Amino acid sequence: MTRRQTYYTLAVMALALIVLGGNAIVSVGNIRRLAEREHWVAHTRAVISDLQTILADVTNASAAQRAYLLIGNDSLLSPARGARAHCEATLVDLRTQTIDMPEQTRRTDALRQACNEAFDNIDATLLVDRHDPANTSQFLSLVHQSTQIMDQIRNLVDEMDRFEKDRLGERTEASAQSLHNTIV
Q1: How confident is the model over 76-130, as pLDDT tens digits?
Q2: CA separation for the pair 36, 172 (Å, rounded)
Q3: Distance from the Cα of residue 28 to its chain's centroid
Q4: Strand, coil or helix: 160
Q5: 3-state secondary structure of 181
Q6: Is residue 79 a contact partner of residue 64, using CB atoms and an 8 Å limit?
Q7: In 3D, which of 42, 50, 124, 146 has the Cα closest to residue 89?
Q8: Cβ neighbours of residue 73 closer than 8 Å, sequence gap 6 or more
Q9: Which among 78, 86, 96, 95 is positioned nearest to 57, based on CA atoms?
Q10: pLDDT for 72
Q11: Which of 52, 54, 67, 56 is nearest to 122 (CA)?
C-alpha cells in the first residue's frame, strides 16, 4: 500500500470516527430529552391520579355521611373516618407536584380549602341530633352546604383535570417526537 493510500485510509477512518462520535453525542441528547419528556408524562398522569383520588375520598366520605343520616348505623361511617387524613396526604402530594405551575398551585390551594370545608361540614352534620325537631333547620342547612361544597370540589377537580389532560396531550406528543428522533 502506498503512502497516499495509507493517508487516505486513515482519513476515511478518522472521518468515520468523527461521524460516529457526533452520532453518539446526538443520540445521547435525544435519549436524555426522551427520558425527560417521559418523566413529565408520568408526572402529569400522577397529578391526574391524585385528583381522582381526592375526589373519590371526599365523595365516599359524603356518601357515608348520607348513608349514616338515612339509616343511623355508625358502621356506615367507616369510609369517612380515614378519608380526611388520606385526602390531606394526597393534597400535600398534589401541591408538591403542581408547584411549578402557579395556576394549578392556586387551584390546589382552593381544592384543599374546599376539602377541609367538606370534611368539617360532614363532622358538623354528624354532631347534630337529626331526630330533634329543634335542629331541623340547622341540619338542612348543613346538608345544603354539603351539596354546594361538593359541587365546588367537582368543579375544581374538573378544571384541574382538563388543564392536566391538555398538558398530557402536549407532553405525550413531545415524547413521541423525541422517541422518533432517537430512533432516526
Answers
A1: 777 788 899 999 999 999 999 999 999 999 999 999 999 999 999 988 887 877 6
A2: 11
A3: 30
A4: helix
A5: helix
A6: yes
A7: 50
A8: 67
A9: 86
A10: 74
A11: 67
Instruction: Indicate the residue type of 30.
Output: N
User: What is the model's pLDDT at position 30?
Assistant: 76
Using the Cα atoms of residue 14, residue 15, residue 20 and residue 26 in order, give the sign of their dihedral: positive
pLDDT computed for residue 184 by the predictor: 64
pLDDT of residue 98: 93
- Which residues, 6 or more positions from 181, have their beta carbon under 8 angstroms from its beta carbon? 30, 33, 34
Torsion angle in degrees (nearest 10) through CA of 63, 69, 75, 79 = 20
Amino acid (one-letter) located at 181 = N
- All residue ranges of the chain with pLDDT < 50 are none
d(CA 173, CA 149): 36
Tell me what pLDDT residue 111 has. Answer: 97
Rounded Cα gap, residues 116 and 62, in angstroms: 12
| Domains of the chain, CATH where assigned | 3-183 (1.20.120.1730)
Which of these, 157, 37, 144, lies nearest to 91 by C-alpha position? 157
